[in-house]
């Protein structure tokens, strides 16, 4: 579409006919993020409250459709990069986020841990080192005072505030560990998300390949399989593989989204609850 046609469409955004507006809105949504800059320019030059509101809603819809497409592509490509999946979720709330800044923050944590790492370290020693870097040097901790705050589920915000929920802290922990070739993976435990330290050459699906578990929400506390079994018994659940073995990156991102559904639902935000639900449907 050329500039003239685009301008003609945008001029119709303040049309009082609802049917005309819906048609124009849908056409602009299909054009994607490329039209956002032009829409923002029109918003800045307008004094019409209705037009500004329509443009704000339109920009959000365009950005949201872009997030859905990115999520679908991430899933179809194998969802190998957990960090990228979390960045896409972050873009839902913060569409103008600086992705490279998030990557650089993770790399900085990894670099500081790498500088202190010794090849001959045992698994427990490596975890103690990671704990020292993540919780002491960088000051990460669980957000116990505002546990259900949606900000706890957005990686950009967690990296900035150093506060998060169990799954986001576990994600940062495992992403840094895996960048250092330390085999630490997420475990989809009900009511709490934890990590598993696996044997270097054991398949992550093997229960015999797990050396121990880590609680990223409690400053990297180490515990054993019997503790996990006891926790499941308290919930009247049997220790199925889904609860005790490492899960996929897709499972992790879907759980992050379910946490957001709970957070926004409790806050009474039905629009965001429904939109996050659509993101979940895209990955399901």
Give a short summary of the structure.
Belongs to the UPF0162 family. The protein has helices spanning 3-11, 18-31, 36-45, 49-76, 82-93, 99-116, 123-137, 155-161, 166-179, 225-234, 241-244, 249-266, 270-283; strands at residues 141-142, 163-164, 184-187, 194-198, 210-215, 221-223.
How much strand content do the residues show? 5-15%
Termini Cα gap: 34 Å
Number of strands: 6
Largest sheet, in brief, is:
4 strands, antiparallel
Query: What's the overall average pLDDT, rounded?
Result: 91
Uncertain segments: none
Q: Biggest sheet, strands in spatial order?
A: 3-4-5-6
Number of domains: 2
Write the H/E string, N to C.
HHHHHHHEHEHEEEEHHHH
Question: Could you explain the architecture of this structure?
Answer:
- With 284 residues, the chain is an alpha+beta fold.
- It folds into two domains: 3-76, Leucine-rich Repeat Variant; 82-283, no CATH class.
- It is built from 13 helices and six strands.
- It has helices spanning 3-11, 18-31, 36-45, 49-76, 82-93, 99-116, 123-137, 155-161, 166-179, 225-234, 241-244, 249-266, 270-283; strands at residues 141-142, 163-164, 184-187, 194-198, 210-215, 221-223.
- The strands form two sheets. A four-stranded antiparallel sheet has the order 3-4-5-6.
- Strand 1, helix 8 (155-161) and strand 2 (163-164) form a beta-alpha-beta unit.
- Helix 2 crosses helix 4.
- The longest helix has 28 residues, at 49-76.
- The protein starts with a helix and ends with a helix.
- 31% of the residues are buried.
- The model has no long low-confidence stretch (mean pLDDT 91).
- Residues 101-258 form the Protein SirB1 N-terminal domain.
- Belongs to the UPF0162 family.
- It comes from Parapedobacter koreensis.
- This is Transglutaminase-like superfamily protein.
